[in-house]
């Protein structure tokens, strides 16, 4: 059996040291997750911001002008929105916080009301 030497697709998001690597329709961009203490303190108040206002809050309040320009320059607003949520997760991870502790839960990431069933409790076919 021959093995392929072609690498698989890159993940949509990957935190490499302190850079969030994002694969977009416009190509790969890197967003620096290092933020000054003053902005970090503002980041930690995200749970008080209405969920639909979080992306604009991150853009206008947390990100540096360079990082803001990268995201606002994207062709696809949905990609930009997703990158902002991933940025919040990445900063939360660096702080040792889960997403639910740093920003409100989103329907896509926290839609269950309890723990998932384990696969070891189900019968195999």
Poorly predicted runs: 102-125
Shape: globular
What does the average pLDDT come to? 82
Percentage of residues in strands: 5-15%
Strand runs, count: 3
Largest sheet: 3 strands, antiparallel
Give, in spatial order, the strands making up the sheet with the most strands.
1-2-3
Give the class from helix and strand content and strand pairing: alpha+beta
Order of helices and strands: EEEHHHHH
Query: What is the helical fraction, as a range of percent?
Result: 25-40%
Task: Give the helix tally.
Answer: 5
What does this structure look like?
There is one protein chain. This protein has helices at 37-43, 54-62, 65-72, 77-95, 99-102; strands spanning 13-16, 19-24, 27-32. By secondary structure, the protein is of the alpha+beta class. It has a 3-stranded antiparallel β-sheet with strand order 1-2-3, with helices on one face. A hairpin with a 2-residue loop joins strand 2 (19-24) and strand 3 (27-32). The radius of gyration is 17 Å and the shape is globular.
């Amino acid at each position: 059996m021959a093995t392929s030497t072609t690498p698989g697709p890159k993940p949509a998001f990957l935190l490499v040291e302190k850079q969030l690597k994002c694969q977009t329709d416009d190509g790969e961009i890197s967003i620096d997750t290092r933020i000054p203490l003053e902005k970090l303190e503002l980041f930690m108040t995200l749970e008080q911001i209405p969920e639909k206002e979080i992306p604009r809050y991150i853009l206008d309040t947390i990100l540096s002008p360079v990082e803001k320009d990268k995201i606002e320059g994207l062709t696809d607003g949905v990609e930009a929105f997703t990158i902002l949520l991933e940025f919040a997760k990445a900063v939360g991870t660096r702080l040792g916080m889960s997403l639910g502790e740093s920003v409100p839960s989103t329907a896509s990431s926290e839609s269950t009301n309890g723990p998932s069933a384990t696969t070891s409790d189900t019968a195999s076919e």
